Amino acid sequence: MKYDVADLSLAAGGKKRILWADNDMPVLAAIRGRFAKSKPLKGMNVSACLHVTAETANLARTLKAGGANVALCASNPLSTQDDVAASLVKDFKIATFSICGENRATYYKHINAAIDHKPVITLDDGADLVNELHTRRKKDAHRIIAGMEETTTGVIRLRALANEGKLKFPVIAVNDAATKQLFDNRYGTGQSTVDGIIRATDFLMAGKKVVVAGYGWCGRGLAMRARGMGAIVIVTEIDAIKALEAAMDGFEVMPMAKAAKVGELFVTLTGNKSVIRAEHFRVMKDRAVVANSGHFNVEIDIPALKRLSKKVIRNVRNYVDEYVLRNNKRIYLLAEGRLINLAAAEGHPASVMDMSFATQALQAEYVVKKRGKLSVAVHDVPMEIEWQVSRFKLKSMSIGIDKLTAEQVAYLASSGEGT
Ligand code: ADE
Question: Are residues 160 and 241 in the same domain?
Fold first, then answer.
């Protein structure tokens, strides 16, 4: 088995983390049990470009239990948990190519190793693997039954590819599933972003002016959690409906140009680029903290920050770089603008990844069943999978819900009954 990880001697610690996370992933564990018997992915090569975390390890184990030959590479150079990567190789015999802190060349070498695995199914978090199959490795695209995409940024890229008429195989927007967005994006990002910022800075949230750029599910989650910890939350948006929603949720809403002057902590969660740029850095307060929790490190215009600075002091604390502007104000950039929740913390808790990765596993089974029948387009996760994951999760939480009575079923189906 081929692999490239930092240090195999870390495996014992990684295994403990994988099994600890598994305790909080009952839906995925139940699917793994079923997959082990029915082998829906028997003999299939599956390549996954995901954050290499304990939770992802449990997804990889599930796909393997279903009969797949799995290769795993990182979807971000800073998010790999090296002990988990070691355990995946040593204890779970999963071909893993990822090293925390890998440079760009190694990052792409690892993605290419995952493509050399000759996958028929791909899983992506950010669409770098699928993008490689549409650019430098086009010749390898013909084998793919379907690809699954885990994150908002990746779905945006895939829709752009489809709109340009360049998409080469069906892809499933797992990110857009309710079982993903409402929970992973909202509660996962909300909590893990706060976690990453606090681990990096040890700052108190109470009383802090926190600017949340983007009021999608991730932004909503962060705004809610920051407010819960006593922060004064300001939201910036480009979408009128979301801006209105934020205002009626009780947040201050204003353009970034105005927020930049008053904010003490800024977090981008937009899926777009240069959301915080030169004109904003120039007017920020001394010691403003800037972090990103969107997928790519382009949401903060770091080259502009560098241009405005007379001095950069790396690692004034782990994950914190100090930029001293020519006007002598200091700006602290966290985790080099890479997603703070995975760089400085451990990503979303297992309990919420349980739902996302259960959806991924069931989706893998589904695309095999539908092999050759899915159109080359961006597809939604079928509702039957969403219901299945939700029902399982409720059961694992010992929560019961009501059933429609026969009378209610008839009422909902008829247009005749009014006042
Ligand atoms: N994305 C966000 N949190 C994650 C986690 N814990 N594992 C994998 N992908 C993630």
Answer: no
pLDDT tens digits for range 116-156: 999 999 999 999 999 999 999 999 999 999 999 999 989 99
174 and 237 co-located in one domain? no
- Residue 370 domain flag: yes
- The C-alpha angle 317, 321, 325, rounded to 5 degrees, equals 135
**What's the 79 CA to ligand 1 centre distance in angstroms?**
9
Rounded CA-CA distance 187/191 in Å is: 6
Does residue 287 sit within a domain?
yes
| Residue pLDDT, tens place only, 319-374 | 999 999 999 999 999 999 999 999 999 999 999 999 999 999 999 999 999 999 99
Q: Using a 6 Å cutoff on CB, does residue 193 contact ligand 1?
A: no
| CA 293 – ligand 1 centroid, Å | 12
CB distance 48 to ligand 1 below 6 Å: no
- Model pTM greater than 0.85? yes
CA distances from residue 168 to 110, 123, 359, 368, 372 in whole angstroms, order as listed: 22, 15, 23, 17, 13
Q: Do 286 and 327 have their domain in common?
A: yes
